[in-house]
């Protein structure tokens, strides 16, 4: 993953956050589709919250959804919370880190089996740790 912008850093849990990360995690922002280098990440490992370091997803649950954002079909038990989101004139289910309540993205019921879920996640909200 690319280096964080240290000049505009905010310390929160596991390290400094860039302005873009703070916008996503703390202000419920969204990164442009297709912009995350994590879309192409294929190595074994896991994904942590960029803000607090909580383990959120195992790399073997990541799949190519075609959405433009890193997508997973299963979250680590107890790591990802859900709440209703009616912003942008539509009803969705927001996902957030239960460790720090940072915004991660949204979950949709159109994912692959065995869960049928698509955790559509902002790459800037994640930190990849390879095995």
- The unreliable regions are 1-12
Ends: how far apart? 15 Å
- Count of β-strands: 11
Overall average pLDDT? 90
Tell me the strand order in the biggest sheet.
5-6-10-9-8-7
Number of helices: 1
Give me the secondary-structure topology.
Blueprint (H helix, E strand, L loop, with lengths): L9 E2 L4 E2 L1 H9 L17 E5 L5 E4 L3 E2 L7 E2 L7 E6 L6 E6 L5 E6 L9 E4 L4 E5 L1
Antiparallel strand pairs: 1-2, 3-4, 3-11, 5-6, 6-10, 7-8, 8-9, 9-10
Give an account of the 3D structure:
It is a single chain. The protein is built from 1 helix and 11 strands, in the order E-E-H-E-E-E-E-E-E-E-E-E. The chain has one helix at 19-27; strands spanning 10-11, 16-17, 45-49, 55-58, 62-63, 71-72, 80-85, 92-97, 103-108, 118-121, 126-130. It is globular. It starts with 9 loop residues before the first strand and ends with a strand. The chain is mainly beta. The relative contact order is 0.25. The longest helix has 9 residues, at 19-27. It has a 6-stranded antiparallel beta sheet with strand order 5-6-10-9-8-7. A 3-stranded antiparallel beta sheet has the order 4-3-11, with no helix packed on it. Strands 1-2 form a two-stranded antiparallel ribbon. Strand 8 and strand 9 (103-108) form a beta hairpin.
